[in-house]
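Side project, low priority. Logging it here so it doesn't get lost.
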Amino acid sequence: MVPSTRRTLLHSACGLATMLAGCSGMFESSDESTRTASENNGSAAPGTGMEPDPESVVTRVDADRRPVWLNDGDGRPTESRHSRRLESKIIDTASRADRLAVAEDVDRSLIEAFLDETDFDTETVYVQTVTIEECFRLTLCRISWTTDKISTDYGRVSRPYDEPCTAGNTVYAVWFIRIPDTVNADDISSYSSSIGGNSCDSQRVSAEGESGGGSASSSNRRTQTGGGQA
């Protein structure tokens, strides 16, 4: 099927549902083991910060290859057994957002609204795709960034016993996380993501919405958080 790009999806009526799943372990896309998590305050170096409650939306998709990608004219990426379990993209301009493509089975309208409401003069959208175990769910705890690295932290908990799942199956979770800072995609050379074996506790994003039950939102936010879970 021909993928839908951002421009062709502006009038889509589909909703993006917050999904429940999860995974475990540590993903690193570089050899660095030391995490940088500078507070986003007056003492932080320029271009660095940490956001414990980022505005975000997330979708879970049961598919055999990545459901969201940047369209460079080569079509949807084909997965292989050597494919990475973590894939990260930086959307730092409106024109780059226009190149975002999604598969037919992805709910789109909330993604479109999220991108449209992002001010790329002062903000950046971080897109992170993770393969996760179907019988768990992830909660987004925080995102931190420097001039050359972006890191995310998730907490893992089991899904409720009455939600059907198959042990050993994996699905895709695609996160759209708004960074309240300008990040140049060409300057970022390292990505990392840690996934803990429990909830985020005091660092976790507030998650009041459940799949099928709506998403939590804060009165001082322009967009929903999507529950901060996948």
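Brief comment: The helical segments are 94-97, 109-116.
Revisit when time allows.
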